Each structure stands twice: as C-alpha cells, then as structure tokens.
Amino acid sequence: MSKRIIYNYLSDDELLRISNTIKNVEKKTSAEILVVIKERRNFFERRKSIRELAEIEFQKSGITATKDRTGVLIFILLSDKQFYILADKKISDKIEQKILDNIANQMSNTFRSGNFSKGIIDCINSLSDILSKHFPILPDDIDEISNKVRFS
C-alpha cells in the first residue's frame, strides 16, 4: 500500500498508538490480535466478499500458526470502507461471530465520524474485554504475532 494513502487516515503516531494498544491488551489475554489494512481490492478480488478477503489475509498473515489457535484479525478494506473481524478456531468456538460483527460495526460508526485511530483502538479494547474473560493470559505466554499494523 502506498504510504501516502494510509496517511490520509492515520499518522505515524496513531499507528504507533494502535500497536501499543495491541501490546497492552495482549498482557491481559493469551489471544493474539493483528490489524491488517488493505487499500483496495485487486482485479482478482473484485467479486470476493469482505469475509473472503479477511480469510485470505488470515492465511497469509500466519495467524493460524499461533500455538493455541487464538488469533484474531481486524481486517480493514479502505476503498470500500468495510471491516471484518475474524477469529481462529479456538476463539470462534467460544465467541459467536455476531459479537465480533457488532464490534466491527461500532468501529465503522467511529470511522464515519472521521476518527480512524479511535475506531481501531476502541475495537481492540472491546476485543480485550471479551478475550481476557475467555482466554486469560497464561504464565508461559509469548507474543507470537507482531503488534505492528500490517499493510496488504
């Protein structure tokens, strides 16, 4: 993704704040959270749903390789202003997709007001509240996925 495009939405400071929020949240849960931002669909993706695009990113990101299958992807498609939260098997067995969809909808509402950083951070914090109840931090927990926002 072109850096110029993302800077229409988020500054370096905001990207760092998002990464730090993930880092702090992961101190309370054994889950791994990853934010991936994609500028637009490519030619071959034009008929794919937002969920299908998130599933592709989920596989590409390596999030399925977490030890306990407790990864969560926050996928943002800028051009379509669409968002999808996708959880790995162990999490989706305990937390219904509609709960994750509600969190994505809340993020969408915050984005509409032009506050992209707040929308993502609020989303991460909402996930933290749910994940820390079902997947508390474990004594041997390690950070398996980078906390940096990725661009696809």
UniProtKB/TrEMBL annotation:
Gene3D superfamilies: 3.10.310.50. It comes from the Bacteria. InterPro entries: TPM_dom (IPR007621). Residues 8-129 form the TPM domain. It holds the Pfam family TPM_phosphatase. PANTHER family: BLL7265 PROTEIN, UPF0603 PROTEIN YGCG. This is Putative membrane protein.
